[in-house]
Design a protein that fits this description.
15 helices; alpha/beta; two-stranded antiparallel ribbon; about 325 residues; globular; seven-stranded mixed beta sheet
Length: about 325
């Protein structure tokens, strides 16, 4: 009998090399993770409950998550595995990559001759992912809330507030503080305003639509704000883009300091540039973050660049909190 030569030769791959299986399974798992989040499964599972699929679609998703290693089946119920616990906590990042940034990546194949492409995102998915830190790292928010609640009450503004998830979380931690949120996405602000009202927080949280990029002319929304009352300014996952468009980190921060002359605290959460020749040598979200911004022409900044700008403007690092190495939240203070 003549031996049959297989069409595909299988060989061991070098460390860090992706396979076709990794690509396909990763994409499939990403879609299932987001669907489970839309159904509230991760919230229930992280709260210690198990889930029971009740339809054919739910059963298919649950079985897929089990085969991916995120869920374990106990009879007709499903529980988290250790890996699933990490997935559930970081589902906001998965949502950004799978839904939030997908419209931008989709443009790549039809723009081969361009230097860059314009960002085309799903604003709601990006907003939810960007506010994910409020539910994913409660210890970070406990530290921020404690800093805000210490001393004389003032007003805290979230510049680029997304769906207001952060200010809503902080309002419970600093009950004497007032909060402002500003975001360029009008629809996101409208939805967040309705949600804030439904929670009975409209008397303490005000949300406004507009750009937070410092320009020669003051933005219109700033006219509705008591600028001298703002003592804490926050920004998460936005400063790198504003700095890329607006002359660097120091230039943007100086603009905010001019807007709010009585600032005594900054809270900056952002992704730092962490490069490596092979993707698995970077933090897990870093390759997607790096490639997305390279495609759209937005510069990313190193830890040294951020901290040099902070020091140049007279800000002292009170606390620095790392999340997956590249995602850093820094509480800064000055006299």
């Amino acid at each position: 009998m003549t031996a049959v030569t297989p069409l595909v030769q299988h060989s061991a791959t070098s460390a860090g090399e992706f396979t076709i299986r990794d690509v396909i399974e990763g994409q499939t798992a990403g879609f299932l993770i987001v669907a489970a989040d839309d159904w509230g499964w991760w919230t229930a599972l992280l709260g210690g409950d198990s889930i029971v699929p009740t339809t054919g679609i739910q059963q298919t998703v649950a079985d897929g998550l089990m085969r991916a290693g995120f869920l374990a089946r106990r009879g007709h119920r499903y529980q988290l595995t250790h890996t699933g616990h990490d997935v559930g906590k970081n589902r906001g990042f998965v949502r950004v990559a799978v839904r939030g940034w997908e419209p931008t990546f989709r443009q790549v194949s039809t723009n081969a001759h361009e230097e860059y492409i314009s960002a085309a995102t799903d604003p709601g998915a990006v907003a939810l992912g960007c506010s994910d830190i409020a539910r994913r790292r409660p210890e970070f928010f406990a530290a921020i809330g404690q800093a805000i609640a210490t001393g004389t009450p003032g007003c805290t503004i979230d510049l680029g507030c997304a769906d207001a998830g952060r200010v809503t979380a902080l309002a419970t931690l600093a009950p004497r503080e007032r909060f402002l949120g500003v975001d360029i996405e009008t629809g996101v602000i409208a939805d967040a305003t309705a949600a804030t009202a439904a929670r009975g927080l409209s008397d303490r949280i005000t949300l406004l639509a507009g750009s937070v990029q410092p320009e020669p002319e003051l933005p219109a929304w700033l006219g509705a704000v008591d600028r001298e009352a703002v003592t804490t300014a926050m920004s998460f996952f936005l400063l790198h883009q504003l700095a890329s468009d607006g002359g660097g980190i120091e230039s943007v921060l100086r603009g905010w300091m001019e807007w709010f002359p009585n600032l005594r605290r900054l809270v900056i959460g952002d992704g730092y540039l962490v490069e490596a020749p092979i993707w698995n040598q970077q933090p897990w979200f870093s390759p997607t973050y790096e490639i997305y911004h390279a495609l759209t022409g937005v510069q990313l900044w190193s830890r040294q660049a951020y901290e040099s700008a902070f020091a140049e403007l007279g800000w002292t690092i009170a606390r620095r909190m790392e999340d997956h190495t590249m995602l850093v939240t820094t509480i800064l203070e000055r006299e």
